[in-house]
Amino acid sequence: MLKFSKFAGGLALLFLLGGTSCRWGIDLEACYRLQEGDWRGLLQTEGGDLPFLFRLERQAGPNKERPSDRLFKARLQDGDTWVESSAEVRGDSLYWNFPVYESVLVAAVSSLGDSLKGFWVKTKNDTAVMLPWSAARGGQYKFASRTAGLPAEVGAQWKVDLGPGTPALMPLTQKGPEISGTLRTSTGDYRYLSGIMDGDSLWMSGMDGGSAYLIRGHLAQDGSMQGQLYAARGPGRPWTAVRDSAATLPDPYGLSTLQNAQAPLAFEFKDIQTGQVVRPGPPARVTLVQLLGTWCPNCLDETEYLSAVYPEWSRQGVQIIGLGFERTYQPEKAVQNLQKLRARYQVPYPLVHAGQPDSASVRRAIPQLVRLKAFPTTLLLDAGGRIRYVHTGFDGPATGSAFERQKALLQNKINALLAE
């Protein structure tokens, strides 16, 4: 059963159950007045507005001869690409569900169809939280310049301190005032971030349907930067940074500890698609075990990559097993979430439901792993089923060269195990 946090209150029921109860503007069907084209959305955070860009386009109707009345293609900007999903108008409100994440953007359509106002509803452990958002038709920019000065030059790799025990790297690319990049930590990245350098002020944001971030920074006279990092909900996180092209992060293969590592890994789960029992080890020459969750953006990046390389690897005797740890107390819902992931990325290897993302569930599945540092975590097993390597986190496509180095290193380790 879906619950609502106190923050959500009765508004959640109004939007999700009432549907047509949020009249706003003239009594004309919203599906006809909602405008197509480019839009600029704003999430309200404690650090101010978090902007994101998207496009709406009417889908073909049942007879394919004219657009549907209620269905729209919604394309969310994610770096240099646009991620497509579906949205629907019900009553006078737009409902935009994201393909894998348990989240939906709900908004009332204005009388002219050129603005939206509502809530981003996110679900975790069967409890929904609502975050205010709005949008206006015609937006093709994230941030507007507030100063008349030239933008400072910050295109470089920055060594970032996000607090005790949290080193990070921030590679930035700059073209005039436009800035793009990401934040890399030892457990993953913050995916695609973009914005502007407004004089000596940095403004960046990113939103992928499952997570959203706002970065504010200021370039000091000594060449360092400092600022605040905001998630969609909660207070800001202070950060400082200095330019450092040689800075690196801890080795992702050295962050986890094993116990009884000589014992073969043994588990049995049922594939959510076929119902067949899935086991690691023989007869596979190499087994890659992926610990993931559909709620985890870096896990989705890794799943997309592994799905692409699996056909070639499987011909060499490599098997992949995805262990899904879902943020829900309902096993049926967990399986549904994993099925959405399979459909979204056409996952060709077995996916199983292994429990919730807590230490007890992970320990039952992988007793050799002393403590899970982060999702995703990837295990490489040899032909005897013994864990030989543990990789913590994942550098996604937004990290550029780090993503390519990571793939090459993984391939090298698999080749070495195949050669044994």
Descriptive account of the structure:
With 420 residues, the protein is of the alpha+beta class. 17% of the residues lie in helices and 41% in strands. The strands form four sheets. The protein has an eight-stranded antiparallel beta barrel with strand order 2-3-4-5-6-7-8-9. An eight-stranded antiparallel barrel has the order 10-11-12-15-16-17-18-19. 40% of the residues are buried.
Q: Could you name the key traits of this structure?
A:
single chain, 420 residues, alpha+beta, 8-stranded antiparallel β-barrel, 8-stranded antiparallel barrel, 41% strand, globular
Which assembly state applies to the chains in this document?
single chain
Q: How widely separated are the two ends?
A: 50 Å
Our Rg estimate from Cα atoms comes to 23 Å
Low-confidence region ranges: 4-27
Percent range for β-strand residues: 35-45%
Shape: globular
Strand neighbour order, sheet with most strands: 2-3-4-5-6-7-8-9
Number of H/I helices? 6
Largest pleated sheet: 8 strands, antiparallel, barrel
What proportion of the residues is helical, as a percent range?
A: 10-25%
SS class: alpha+beta
